[in-house]
Sequence to fold (329 residues):
Amino acid sequence: MPDADKPVIAALLPHTGTYGGVRRYIEMGNQFARRGYDYAIYTPEGNPPDWIEYKAATKPLSRIQADAPDIIICGDVGLLPRFVKMEARLKIMNLLGSRFADKYRRHLRDDTVVVGNSVEWKEYLPDVEGRAIAGGVNPDIFRPLGLPRTDDAFRVMCFGRKSKKYKGTETVVRAFRRLRPRKAFRLVMFDNQRFNKPWFVHGENHWGLTQMQLATLYNMADVFVSAEYGAGWSNTSAEAMACRIPVICTKSGTQDFAIHEQTALVIPFDSPLAITEAIYRLKEDSSLRKQIAEAGWEKVQEFTWERVCDKFERLFAEKGLIKGSDSFG
Fold:
């Protein structure tokens, strides 16, 4: 049951579908519910998620004024015009990536606290006061499973939302097409929507996966590649690391945990050649592959959803909404 002495928290989202940005608020809701908070996700329809366990409430956005939450966190750029008109004891604008920088700046108000979900938020809003509370990963789901291999191909995995150019999927596909001999490699792609057709020979397309199926897919990969730009927090890169899979990535959404030559191989934006070379390097150097996988796994253990909520509780304490405690970070 919610603790009457703790503030009521509302998170604003456009929906509760299968998206990384939505995952953040579902996982936070689970943590806050365990800590006795009254937490709810408000969307236009108020539908609960059907793809992941969620232990807090979902409500239609039309109810938020009557509910009068103490804390409102806006997790969607499209809802900012409504968010700025709302009243609460604490209003948090959660920044989700550089591609929205102009919209964030346009909706900044004196009564709003800015929280970026990666340290890189200061690169696109350098003159704005705020803090970073990075994303997390769920180690109960995303972890090494010790699964046996089913084939001899070197499996290259990436997230496949081709409709979103900033995901860089086309760049990964262009890199894959450079690899020789082609039959020695297999490109494994997953998405939250059905693929109309396969993109390539020697590849796999996956969609509609459960969380454990997704974790299994990570565990069957030899390397994970993210070619994103304009991201806030790269859920997929962090999840791959948590499964002890070596990661090749851009610096977009990964600066909190991707250290070049240590926890990942960090490559330039829009460079198929750099991706191809990094894949060859990890394929040919098994010791480097194991070293990066282990260091990445160790690093990403710092980013749990418990620690995310610890940092939000510190913010709540600073604003006088809860009593301070040594138990949160």
Observations:
- The first helix runs from residue 20 to 34.
- The chain has eleven helices and 13 strands.
- Residues 57 and 249 are 35 Å apart (CA to CA).
- The domain at 8-136+304-318 is CATH 3.40.50.2000 (Rossmann fold).
